Amino acid sequence: MDKLMDHPWFIRVVSLLLAIMLYMSANVGAKTGETRNTFGQEDTETLIDIPVVAYYDEDNLVVSGVPKYVNVTLQGPASIVKPTALQRNFEVYVDLTELPLGTYTVPIKYRDISDKLKVTIQPSSAKVTIREKVSKRFPVGVEFFNRNKMPDGYSVGEPTVKPDAVTITGAKELIDEIAFVKAIVDLDGATETLTREARVWVYDRRGNELDIEPEPSSVEVTVPVKSPSKTVPVQVRTTGELPDGVHLVSITPEPDRVTIYGPKEVLNHIDKLEGLTVDLDDITDDATVELDAPLPDGAKSINPDKIKVHIDVEKDVTQTWKDVPIAVVGLPDSYKAEFVKPLEGKITVHLVGPPDVVRGLTKDDIRLYVDVGGLDTGEHQVPIQWNHPKQVQWQPSAETAMVHIRDKATAQ
């Protein structure tokens, strides 16, 4: 045995084991916050941040004043103190189950610790308040932050909140203090509609923030951001031509004005909405076409983005007059003229044209005549002419007349 103890490896192994035991002992003490008496059989350890359990009717009551953590000092036989400190399989608690509403100073108790240990809890008691628990729904308003940091001319529309209300649960006295609930959205640099997840804040009537957690604690806020705008008239151009016998009455855009959104420097150069074109080639009756509103260069959006164009047309109508007299012009004073055909110098005339024009005419507005200027005596076939309003066509029962010219002196 003496030889073994004198062997250098034996001394090294024993030294290593002693070092390990010393290291483990030091670490256990550091972790538990112990104050240890290493002499004799008694040991003392202080355990910090031990959670406190509160027993009460959690469905109907709210309790305040119970500390979340306490420090627990264990004193007694080392063989019991050490495993109790390491395992921590005991409970520190306050029992409020038998107390009515009100404020009380209650002891902080423990259980599942050996009777052989002296236990000291710091603090040893707590002043607690027991209140009635209520839940109430509150609408969520929206408050804007940094609105003055939006680009010039931009504005915000009515925000939407999802969900638009939250539930707040707590002591009735505290719930009664709530004046409003808000979600705050930062608008710094905003130039387009934005959606943000925003925390919900709770305030009393004096504007002080209340330490209450709503459910949910955050909401989704969507804020429409409108750029500078300008309202301008709508201009509609036409291409093609209407078929014969069809006349354009009006072209009316609906709406006749649109709002264009975009930077101010772009809007300053826009005085009307151009680019809407209607093709008349295939229009035979009143029609309505829907066109996409063209977005001017540099603009961001336009409202509305669809334009209805109402095209009103009218078709030719026919007006018929019988026995319309034909006048003779260009006849020298020494001559006289008689109609051989048509008899009595009268024909039937059909007028074709737009309703508003044709229906507004009378026989006095239609002057038929034949020009015999430069013709000698005898019978002559001459074209029947007329003075007619614009847009009106005529269809005479005869296009020429037979006129007999005589010398007045000879005729006598």
Description of the structure:
The protein has helices spanning 2-6, 8-32, 78-87, 172-177, 264-267, 355-358, 408-411; strands at residues 42-55, 61-64, 69-77, 91-95, 102-107, 109-111, 118-122, 125-145, 155-156, 160-162, 165-171, 178-186, 194-204, 218-223, 225-226, 229-239, 246-254, 257-261, 273-279, 287-292, 301-303, 306-315, 317-329, 335-341, 346-353, 367-371, 378-383, 385-387, 393-396, 400-407. The protein has 7 helices and 30 strands. The longest helix has 25 residues, at 8-32. It is rod-shaped, with a radius of gyration of 53 Å. By secondary structure, it is mainly β. Helices cover 14% and strands 51% of the residues. This is YbbR-like domain-containing protein. Pfam families: YbbR (PF07949).
**What's the tally of helices?**
7
CATH architecture field of the largest domain: Beta Complex
Distance between the termini: 187 Å
Structural class of the secondary elements? mainly beta
Number of separate domains: 4
Organism: Geobacillus stearothermophilus
Protein name: YbbR-like domain-containing protein
InterPro entries: c-di-AMP_regulator, YbbR
Pfam family, one: YbbR
Short overview:
By secondary structure, the protein is mostly beta strands. It has seven helices and 30 strands. The protein folds into four domains: 42-132, RNA Polymerase Alpha Subunit, Chain A, domain 2 (Beta Complex); 140-226, YbbR-like domain (RNA Polymerase Alpha Subunit, Chain A, domain 2); 229-315, Beta Complex (RNA Polymerase Alpha Subunit, Chain A, domain 2); 317-410, Beta Complex (RNA Polymerase Alpha Subunit, Chain A, domain 2), CATH 2.170.120.
